[in-house]
Automatic annotation (TrEMBL):
Protein's name in the database: Aspartate aminotransferase
EC number: 2.6.1.1
Record Pfam families: Aminotran_1_2 (PF00155)
Originating organism: Ananas comosus
Ranges where the Aminotransferase class I/classII large domain occurs: 28-394
The gene coding this protein: LOC109719187
Gene Ontology biological process terms, A to Z: amino acid metabolic process
């Protein structure tokens, strides 16, 4: 009965790792998936995560019972505080409904399903370009996906004019997906002044902001600075949604730990919103997993472990920034034609190199460099040892 089933395509991002794994070359480098690697090219488990896990293992009161549909209560409270700030009026007024979800993706999906059921406008505007999973997640959640201009290939920076025009032309009430910081794949974020203009436009048109926060702490190394975009929208008292992921900033990728928060106008509305989120979640996966959320809650609730985390997070962010400088310098040293200053201007995990799909294919074939065909490279996958090889590959790609 399944003989007619066609072979599905590989995921454009995760498929890069599949191809990488098949390549026997000793010089191969995987710059596809956005996963942090050490200078030695190894995955990193933060010391503070190991410590929290040890504390959990040694605590005999810890059991493996089901969590509530909404997840671990402590985790939810601490996650809201992390993104909105401890003194956020929305938190103090109990206007936030937070549910633990399956990392960032699950939070986006639950948020999308909730909106499709309970919000009057079904259209969501996503930036062009954006993380490749966004259109799929929201379409399958029941929303209609449209794009707004975001990136300008000519400047390799923000197309602010285009963004303002497109959001200005969106129907009143439309949902707008915003990357809270470290936009993926471009590494291009609005300035604080531009964020303020975006906020004014969104509020004046009654658009609904939905923030995707997958990189808090990774852009600048500061958790507060990277949450500013979200916080200016909370400060004006209006509604918004936020999907948080701990995949990158705590290195908890495979634990699938994240949170969806919906900021409402009143505590009363937040209670009803939460009750409806439960109805979305229960038939999808019943309740979320306990381990990752317990790690996060253990780290966030204790000042000492929290501080340790911020130091380790900053070290990851700093190593990525150092990779940017090393790659830029290596291209300069080779006299590679073109302006590569965007490598040091863009922020977060990725550089949107401007290399086209033919150049990428050439680099994969001749240099065993694996990256997505849109020219995005994960700076977190680079090390001082692999920078020269990548610079040689880029140089060859643009000069042959
Ligand atoms: N949003 C963006 C912009 C991302 O880059 C990612 C991870 N690549 C996610 C969401 C979700 O990741 P996860 O589900 O692993 O938390």
């Amino acid at each position: 009965v399944f003989a007619h089933v066609a072979q599905g395509p590989e995921d454009p991002i995760l498929g890069v790792t599949v191809a990488y794994n098949k390549d026997p070359s000793p010089v191969k480098v995987n710059l596809g998936v956005g996963a942090y690697r050490t200078e030695e090219g190894k995955p990193l488990v933060l010391n503070v995560v190991r410590k929290a896990e040890q504390m959990l293992v040694n605590d005999p009161s810890r059991v493996k019972e089901y969590l509530p549909i909404t997840g671990l209560a402590d985790f939810n409270k601490l996650s809201a505080k992390l993104i909105f700030g401890a003194d956020s009026p929305a938190i103090q007024e109990n206007r936030v409904a937070t549910v633990q979800c399956l990392s960032g993706t699950g939070s986006l999906r639950v948020g999308g399903e909730f909106l499709a059921r309970h919000y009057h406008e079904r259209t969501i505007y996503i930036p062009l370009p954006t993380w490749g999973n966004h259109p799929k997640v929201f379409t399958l959640a029941g929303l209609s996906v449209k794009t707004y201009r975001y990136y300008d290939p000519a400047t390799r920076g923000l197309n602010f004019q285009g963004l303002i025009e497109d959001l200005g032309a969106a129907p009143s009430g439309a949902i707008v997906l915003l990357h809270a910081c470290a936009h993926n794949p471009t590494g291009v974020d609005p300035t604080p002044e531009q964020w303020e203009q975006i906020r004014q436009l969104i509020r004046s048109k009654g658009l609904l902001p939905f923030f995707d926060s997958a990189y808090q702490g990774f852009a600048s190394g500061s958790l507060d600075a990277d949450a500013q975009s979200v916080r200016i929208f909370v400060a004006d008292g209006g509604e918004l949604l936020t999907a948080q992921s701990y995949a990158k900033n705590m290195g908890l990728y495979g634990e699938r730990v994240g949170a969806l928060s919906i900021v409402c106008r009143s505590a009363d509305v937040a209670v009803r919103v939460e009750s409806q989120l439960k109805l979305v979640i229960r038939p999808m996966y019943s309740n979320p997993p306990i381990h990752g959320a317990s790690i996060v809650a253990t780290i966030l609730k204790d000042r000492e472990t929290y501080n340790e985390w911020t130091i380790e997070l900053k070290a990851m962010a700093d190593r990525i920034i150092s990779m940017r400088h090393q790659l830029f310098d290596a291209l300069k040293a080779r006299g590679t034609p073109g302006d590569w200053s965007h490598i040091i201007k863009q922020i977060g995990m990725f550089t949107f190199t401007g290399l086209n799909s033919q150049q990428v294919a050439f680099m994969t074939k001749d240099f065993h460099i694996y990256m997505t065909s849109d020219g995005r490279i994960s700076m977190a996958g680079l090390s001082s040892k692999t920078v020269p090889h990548l610079a040689d590959a880029i140089h060859a790609a643009v000069t042959t």
